[in-house]
Amino acid sequence: MHERAYQLFEAQQTERGIDVQQVKEKIKALAIETPSWGYGDSGTRFKVFKKVGVPRDPFEKISDAAVVHRLTGACPSVAIHIPWDKVDDYDKLSKHAKELGVRIGGVNPNVFQEEEYMLGSITNADPVIRRKATNHLLECVDIAKAVNSDIVSLWIADGTNYPGQGDIRKRKHWLHESFAEVYQALPDDMRMLIEYKFFEPGFYHTDLADWGMAYNVANQLGPKAQVLVDTGHHPQGTNVEHIVAYLLDEQKLGGFHFNSRKYADDDLIVGTSNPYELFLIFYQIIDALQDADAGVRQTAENIAYMIDQSHAIEPKIPAMIRSILNVQTQYAKALLIDLNKVRKAQEAQDVLAAEQAVREAFEFDVNPLLQTIREEMGLPLNPMQAYLDSSYPEQILERGIGGASW
Amino acid sequence: MHERAYQLFEAQQTERGIDVQQVKEKIKALAIETPSWGYGDSGTRFKVFKKVGVPRDPFEKISDAAVVHRLTGACPSVAIHIPWDKVDDYDKLSKHAKELGVRIGGVNPNVFQEEEYMLGSITNADPVIRRKATNHLLECVDIAKAVNSDIVSLWIADGTNYPGQGDIRKRKHWLHESFAEVYQALPDDMRMLIEYKFFEPGFYHTDLADWGMAYNVANQLGPKAQVLVDTGHHPQGTNVEHIVAYLLDEQKLGGFHFNSRKYADDDLIVGTSNPYELFLIFYQIIDALQDADAGVRQTAENIAYMIDQSHAIEPKIPAMIRSILNVQTQYAKALLIDLNKVRKAQEAQDVLAAEQAVREAFEFDVNPLLQTIREEMGLPLNPMQAYLDSSYPEQILERGIGGASW
Amino acid sequence: MHERAYQLFEAQQTERGIDVQQVKEKIKALAIETPSWGYGDSGTRFKVFKKVGVPRDPFEKISDAAVVHRLTGACPSVAIHIPWDKVDDYDKLSKHAKELGVRIGGVNPNVFQEEEYMLGSITNADPVIRRKATNHLLECVDIAKAVNSDIVSLWIADGTNYPGQGDIRKRKHWLHESFAEVYQALPDDMRMLIEYKFFEPGFYHTDLADWGMAYNVANQLGPKAQVLVDTGHHPQGTNVEHIVAYLLDEQKLGGFHFNSRKYADDDLIVGTSNPYELFLIFYQIIDALQDADAGVRQTAENIAYMIDQSHAIEPKIPAMIRSILNVQTQYAKALLIDLNKVRKAQEAQDVLAAEQAVREAFEFDVNPLLQTIREEMGLPLNPMQAYLDSSYPEQILERGIGGASW
Amino acid sequence: MHERAYQLFEAQQTERGIDVQQVKEKIKALAIETPSWGYGDSGTRFKVFKKVGVPRDPFEKISDAAVVHRLTGACPSVAIHIPWDKVDDYDKLSKHAKELGVRIGGVNPNVFQEEEYMLGSITNADPVIRRKATNHLLECVDIAKAVNSDIVSLWIADGTNYPGQGDIRKRKHWLHESFAEVYQALPDDMRMLIEYKFFEPGFYHTDLADWGMAYNVANQLGPKAQVLVDTGHHPQGTNVEHIVAYLLDEQKLGGFHFNSRKYADDDLIVGTSNPYELFLIFYQIIDALQDADAGVRQTAENIAYMIDQSHAIEPKIPAMIRSILNVQTQYAKALLIDLNKVRKAQEAQDVLAAEQAVREAFEFDVNPLLQTIREEMGLPLNPMQAYLDSSYPEQILERGIGGASW
Question: Which of B369, D52, D84, D336 has its CA 20 to 30 A from that of D173?
Fold first, then answer.
């Protein structure tokens, strides 16, 4: 039935003036990086639930990520987290990835899980700890070179819990100094993406609390520093797509960490809480791809799309497949927006028509389209079912319980 | 200098028509329960920082709690958490407490840290797991009897992460059924306090999400079931003191878990984030103590005040002492409200005068009062300094690292 | 093309086991009340923008509402607001409605726009003002009788701006007393729906702040008192569908005020901010319609669906049509949920399958279905276009500027 | 008794190492601007309550502001809003102010109360409207020159209500263009302060949504453009003092609009909702006044403190007096922080000691200090009582009802 459904879809969209061929090409080209840590155990502060079959080392994590890519065709790279994914031989790790059809993507330092970092890493009042933390960031630049990655992705978990606990301005200076040193170490073709977070684990203040702080330091550093938007890192009621549009316009949007949330930084499967928000984010990106300014267009083209979730209660690989399908769905819908119609309504100041021109695209069923694309790419029509029907779920059971976790 | 300060304070308050003697008696009578788990290691989902000197078993936790009581005179009981504080011989534990000048207070079951509870405990779709969870609640009633406690304090961490994951109405029924069974098991002089929480660890829905759900089930159960208000378990912008006043009026306020927060359930030291809120909570309680209805007055008199914090980065015992001092400070200030003045302004519909009549009490410095009270009770004037100057901080170092945690 | 699309839709759904005929009947039976005040000028506190063609009196408001019903077939009744819609002869107003194919629905008292109500209406410290306000509520019961309506819908805007300003417990008692008097006056077949609101216009506390307070008073009054859920009246992060399910289970959900919001009580067109939330609300209702308990089923069947928006910048009638279409869309999608599939996955504790079973229904394009239904009902396929193409928009221009507003 | 209290206070603070003389001088030097519109009627979207005695024109507003200054000694300037305060002869207005002992301060344009601005002013898709709006901003620069003011304070109420309604990036460009034109028109000694707001009246997006957007445009414009922080314009859970510290460090904090709120932009009397927040804001400012960088110190010295409230239910002049007293109280407390002690604890990484070093200052009763200062300045000890006892409240009754409102 999906062929018939697709034919109808194509006819409908063509009638609307949508170039379906182009839409298909764009969807095929969408690459979403999955995180190595998304395949390990995770949890809340109350409990990390242990699952059988979770990968025991970086090599197994990449194997799992490769399965997701094989089934979806959309995840050619895998982000790694250091020291969780520290290995003696990065060449070997890269080769392992390559053999499985993927490559290593963003390198993520970890400056929040050692005892010394309790009161801050690169913003710690103790210069010895700051030095150690910055050295770790520099090490990650080296690892990125070693694995041929062009992205170092920085989440600094620093913050304070109480008024007065830290000197806010001094900590800002220390953070800028550390980042400046990292920036200097970047090769020409490498970008550092700077993530911000409204709260947690610092509850009173986080040193990089919002896009404005991430943007400001990126701006002061130079063109190789950009902002990374984690969709769960904002206060309630934030218009995330506005921030996306703003950063695109300033040519400072570097990438995304996709996930979803209802209240705090829940790190749930992307697209499950408010799918319309994801659609509206893609609308801003697609609109920017047609900007008059080549710099804006180029920024939009180079966005690094990454999943960053902590699915604690679901089986890991299926949860990742679901995430990828959800991103594809909203991206596909956003590509169906008739941007000319939207713009005409905006110019005519027709509020209802403009709103409707955006939302009508959201109402289409893009499953026939996505299935057809998968068929054309030689992928299973239903990647989730294909995974469940495969031998992989059983195969990994031999790993036992107590694999990698964070 | 504090004598001179106290003399002035007494003169000032007497002039305002405040019965300082009565205020002093009330402050001396304020009992705040500290939680055994507040003396162990804790953290965020990102990291539990390990401290040297943390108690290694329930006996040592009670020893620490007894030190806090010895220094503040305000913490005669200690809440326990089962199975964290499970022992073979509860009589021995009770005696240990008694010898140290304290007693065991509220018994808190734990239905969130076993693998079976991943998708719910008493609301789990699997009847075997529900049975196990209810049995654990019943066990806690038995333990409460064994330790001569009159409170079982129930936080059910059940919830779901996604729309559709659970059958919301069925889960409600299961929860009510389980609670009914527990209620039946309560001896006449024991209360069950029902805690609610807006989010976490369930991110899509928590089965007891707000005071209304806790109140409704308590109401259906009977007079021995009451609501427990954790000050950090509300959505942003909530008027917590309104809920307190409402529950008092319905004679269903059973107790508090005190802590503070800025964004989510941060579990910081009570009174550090918005001390005025704590003051306003006490204002409602003190006002209810003068209610025309004896039932309301009695409810207010029987409130169980408990600390429930997760101070992850501070030394444990000092953090607890600070919490107690902060609660005393706000309680003392609230006792300085001239309620007649407030009520007259309310009746005269004088908004500014009514607001000012409440807030002027908040502006007084109650340190001289609290110091004088401590002097009269034979306590150190500055319990924090007395602790730091004592041999206890050094003494506990021999416990080493890696004590109890949650 | 919509016939072809509908054929495909029917085939798809039949294959999924959905009884499309039944779905169509249910959608045809969905009645959504529009509010008379939704046709007048409105705005924010900063500015009410005046539009040409806005109705000048209650008769013209009903005429506009009748147009919306004529085009959508879904809005057979019109809510009125007293005194905004006060007329000398309610019989005449009812006949006017009847002639235009609609009837008068819920009667809404207004106790917030007279100078006396500045510090409260039925909770005012002044008994004379309380009497006046209660009398107005009773007058609305009489008006409801006069217009043959069976619903009085109560939003009490009372609250305070400052701590201490009002006596929270006394105000609660006064509110309960007033409602008890109204309840006594209700004829057997009339319901009073009690609305709650988290904030505004009272900024410190609102006397009916949440569903729990509305539920509690409704419970104490009796079966003719129920709770009304306004989708915009909750704190950020609230799971509204949970409250819906909870109230259904307690047989206390009386109706809805639909609208949407991003931050506060924005009163935007329903379904424009987070359409998935509306879908999930309908999921809970449809699920409850199959409950084992006849009382729960009956409650779900008798829900009063009402629009309550303040679309300040859009043309009024088109904004209302859009609202109706959005509600129909999400209701139709929710009817496509395979409830058996959901329940099986819930029982099997398969988190991903259960979530997906709910969300897959959201992904279908229900436009072909809705168009076919309209065709079968003799309605325009596209009610919005039909309106814009009609002579009505021009016709109302003769009303000039400066019509009704709130 | 206050002399005795002050003597004790002085002794206590001197013992703590605080230079009381310096504290007194700083408090005496604190100037807080009151807004002309704060003396007129205001309300919520539901109702503007009309009060007897409200000023009928700009001259009477300034008279009222002068009374507040006469009683508090802290409000030497009055902000004006154009066109609300438009007069034919600004020289006459300035002289009127001078005669009464005050002067005209910040000039605030109004680009939200004309029909043309419904869909935006300087970001409107229509260039004619943008031109009109920018001309109004330029007019305000001229008025500022005419009244010898050095501040133009810009709140642009532009935003959209729905996704797709406006072109976010284009609107950003239009806003920047308009501001650039205004910047060019500024004389050397005039600053433009750029205000941001998270929501309202635009509910989907506001064009200047947060400090980051205001900062970015100010940065691109140059040193005469700075950010204005309205304490009520942030999402829930925001650490406002962090933003303050950040902007100070970047030398871009220009001023404040003080008020308080519990949920949205409630515009209540400053210091009534969470007084500790105001204290913590002043702590950051006072700390920055000792910064090593002269630019940071100078920025902190030049902050323009302004009240911006919409007290709808209170008598106007008393509400303003209360606001001033509340700001003085928190400023005075912040001046009692022993900054050396805080910094030592920060350096020693002693979390509890650092928090306590800040909060202990908040606990002091500064009333004796403020009363002594008033005595020394020849002001009434209790400005509120002095006002109520004066003939002014009765005198203004002759103005009748229906004065200025917004």
Answer: D84
Q: Which amino acid is at C43?
A: G
For residue B345, give the 3-state DSSP assignment: helix
* Whether D236 and B236 lie within 8 Å, measured CB to CB: yes
Q: In chain B, whose CA is at the least distance from the CA of C362? A: B163
Residue with tokens 């979803």: A260
The whole-angstrom separation of Cα B123 and Cα D159 is 45
Dihedral sign computed on CA atoms, order D275, D280, D281, D286 = positive
Query: What would the pLDDT profile of A109-142 be if each residue is shown by its tens digit?
Result: 999 999 999 999 999 999 999 999 999 999 999 9
Instruction: Determine the Cα–Cα distance for residues A272 and A260; give it in Å rounded to an integer.
Output: 7
Taking an 8 Å cut-off on Cβ atoms, the answer to whether D313 and B351 are in contact is yes
Residue B190 CB contacts under 8 Å (≥ 6 apart), including other chains = B141, B144, B145, B149, B150, B151, B152, B224
Which residue in chain A is spatially nearest to B161 when comparing CA positions? A268
Residue D172 to residue A246, Cβ atoms within 8 A:
yes
Measured CA to CA, the distance from residue A308 to residue A331 in angstroms comes to 17
Residues 6+ apart with CB under 8 A from D305: D30, D31, D32, D33, D255, D256, D258, D327
Put simply, whether D21 touches C (Cβ < 8 Å) is no
Q: What is the DSSP string of A130-158?
A: HHHHHHHHHHHHHHHHHTT--EEEE----
Q: Name residue D263's amino acid.
A: Y
User: What's the angle, vertex CA A58, arms to CA A180 and CA A313, rounded to 5?
Assistant: 100
- Percent over 90 (pLDDT), chain B: 98
Please provide the DSSP assignment of C244-305 as one string. Answer: HHHHHHTT-EEEEEE-B-SSS---BPTTSS-HHHHHHHHHHHHHHTT-SSHHHHHHHHT-EE
Spatial contact of A239 and A280, defined as CB atoms under 8 Å apart? no
Pairing of strands A43-44, A47-48: antiparallel
Q: Which of residues 287-346 of C touch A (CB under 8 A)?
A: 313-315, 318-319, 322, 329
Under an 8 A CB cutoff, do D204 and C262 touch? yes
**Per-residue pLDDT at B406:** 67
CATH homologous superfamily of domain A31-335? Answer: Divalent-metal-dependent TIM barrel enzymes (3.20.20.150)
The alpha carbon of residue B27 is apart from the nearest alpha carbon of chain D, in Å, by 18
Partner chains of B (3+ C-beta pairs under 8 Å): A, C, D
User: Domain extents for chain B?
Assistant: 1-29+337-389, 31-335
**CB of C11 less than 8 A from some CB of D:** no
Q: What is the pLDDT of residues A270-324, one digit of tens each?
A: 999 999 999 999 999 999 999 999 999 999 999 999 999 998 999 999 999 999 9
Compute the C-alpha angle A21/A25/A28, nearest 5°. 140
Is A81's pLDDT higher than 70? yes
Whole-complex ipTM: 0.98
Closest chain A CA to residue C368 = A364
Chain centroid to CA B124: how far?
28
Q: Length of chain A in residues, anyone?
A: 406
What does the pLDDT read at residue D403? 86
